[in-house]
Amino acid sequence: MRQELIIQGVPDRIKRDAWWLETITTPQQDHPRSTKPDGPLLSAVRIQHAIPVLAALITLADWLFWKQPLGISIAVFAVVLSAAIMFAKRERPSRSEWIWAIGFTALCNLPVAIDLQFLSVLFSLGGVICLAVWVVYGGKSNEGAAVRLAFRLPTIGAAMLIRDVLSEKHDVNLGTGLRSHAASLMLPLIMGVVFLALLAIANPVLEIVIEALDPGYLLAREFWLRVLFWGICACLIWPYLNLSDPWLGPRTRQPFAPMAGPARSAFLINPASVRNSLMLFNLLFLVQTIMDLSILTGGVALPEGMSYATYAHRGAYPLVVTALLAGLFTLATHSMIRTDATLRALVYLWLAQNVFLVVTAAFRLQFYVEAYALTHLRVAAFIWMALVMIGLVLTLLQIHLGQTRVWLMRRCFVATLVTLYACCFVNFAEIIANYNLRHGDLASRDGYYICNLGADAYPVIHAYELKTNQQLCGRSMRYALNRNRIDTWREWGFRRWRIQAYYQQHS
User: DSSP 3-state assignment of 189?
Assistant: First the structure.
């Protein structure tokens, strides 16, 4: 029974209302609440409000991708998903942040709009991932978060979706809640069916649409495959709508932990062993450099039975691997080289010789291309050699300026990223066909490879056929052009559109 609290010297009317002076209990004791932390999106709206966003994105994915050819539709979906991520930002994005996000998203999806290829799709996906990391971490650079997000995206989405939906059960009264929802839906459903029947009678078109609905479609295999597609889309999209620290990791950068067991590694890697290694490496590379100069300048003849093409093929790739190992060795011994002037001088000499060997490897590959034509793999080898050269030069700068290994790795990553991004805009099939067709012997000997470069090489091949008045590619090229034809806007790409316009103009 409740005991009344009496306060002497207080008017009777206030005595009766003095319940507010009773001992106050904490809200946790009276009304226990869930302490589940919310992510950036869930701090503004609850999951039941995020579900419509997820449903809208799944509907868009179904319209763009289900049994549809791929093309610029990937860029369209990436742009819409990026906008949803921006709306999920904890603080309301400012105008400058919107401008930055729009520019970044356009830059990442431009390669897909030019031409659909594996590399352009990677840039589109990478742009979405980087934007999501920026929404969580802001201006703080966190490469580890981007890597974690890229690897967790295909695997953790389903677990996150189930976890977040089930975690809301504590906030819902399953007793009165269900009854209240049923009561609120009963009248609209009954009256809706009545009005639908009346409208169907009055509208013959609506009656035909209703009669065309087939409940048996729910049992069809295609329907359940489509449901599976929706589920996969939900699992891939949901993490972007629920960006939270427990998933992405801590906001603050974790310092690199020192390498364990320095005493064990000191037995193998120590200043004396590094100095002896660099002296031996310089001597070996000096011999190789002298021999390459002698052979390339014609002073020394090749062994009997070996052509320049064979010589070029044998040396092009191993020399690049050698340069990579040199860079790794320099990184591993960075702390010793930085504090020892003698070791630093030996490293400068060794890296300079590596740079020269990469140049000779490029010359070898050029000889091989002149003998056996240009291919996609050989173009990739030229690009790879250029990146290795940039990495060696950056390593020299890093040692000279006294920078850290993180400084070097970041710049090597940026150089690789810029190179790959530029490759998305280059029509390599056209370059290969143009080079091979300019060398008459290669065109006659490797016509099959040229014709199988696909529709991207058609303008060059067509110009060659007009110039020589002979047909190089027949049915195979027409098949490639028909397969590359744009039938719907979803598969549109600038390069495909340009080639199709050229084909229609000259056919």
Answer: helix
CB neighbour list of residue 431: distance below 8 Å, 6 or more residues apart? 374, 379
How many CB atoms are located within 10 Å of the residue 387 CB?
15
Q: List CB contacts of 303: < 8 A, sequence separation 6 or more.
A: none
Distance CA 428, CA 432 (A): 6
Largest distance between two CA atoms of the chain: 122
CB atoms within 10 A of CB 396: 17
Distance CA 167, CA 197 (A): 40
- Which tokens belong to 242? 């629920």
**Could you tell me which residues come within 8 angstroms of residue 149 by beta carbon, excluding any fewer than 6 positions away?**
129, 132, 133, 239, 248
Given the structure tokens 């549109």, which residue do they identify?
492
Look at the pTM and tell me if it is higher than 0.70: yes
Amino acid at residue number 311: Y
Alpha helices in 203-270 (DSSP H): 204-212, 221-241, 245-248, 262-266
Q: How far apart are CA 106 and CA 100, in angstroms?
A: 10
The closest of 243, 244, 241, 245 to 84, measured between CA atoms, is: 241
Element containing residue 365 per DSSP (H, E): helix 341-372
pLDDT digits (tens, 9 = 90+) for 467-500: 888 888 877 787 788 888 888 888 999 999 999 9
Paired tokens of 70: 């791929």
The H-or-E segment that residue 3 falls in is: none
Q: What is the mean pLDDT of residues 73-83?
A: 94
Element (H, E) at 87: helix 72-87
Q: Are 367 and 432 in contact (CB under 8 A)?
A: no
CB atoms within 10 A of CB 381: 19
Give the integer Cα–Cα distance in Å for 37 and 46: 12
Give the integer Cα–Cα distance in Å for 504 and 507.
5
23 pLDDT above the threshold of 60: no
Whole-angstrom distance, CA of residue 252 vs CA of residue 139: 12
Alpha-carbon distance of 419 to 387, in angstroms, equals: 8
Asked if residues 486 and 497 have their Cβ atoms less than 8 Å apart, the reply is yes
Report d(CA 345, CA 275) in Å as an integer: 10
In the block, tokens 């190789």 appear at: 288
Asked if residue 366 lies in contact with residue 388, where contact means CB atoms within 8 angstroms, the answer is: no
Cβ 357 vs Cβ 288: under 8 Å: yes
Q: Would you give the DSSP letter of residue 491?
A: G
Residue 217 makes CB contacts below 8 A (sequence gap 6+) with 223
Residues 416-444 as b or e (16 or more Cβ within 10 Å = b) = eeeebbebbeebbbbbbbbbbbeeeebbe
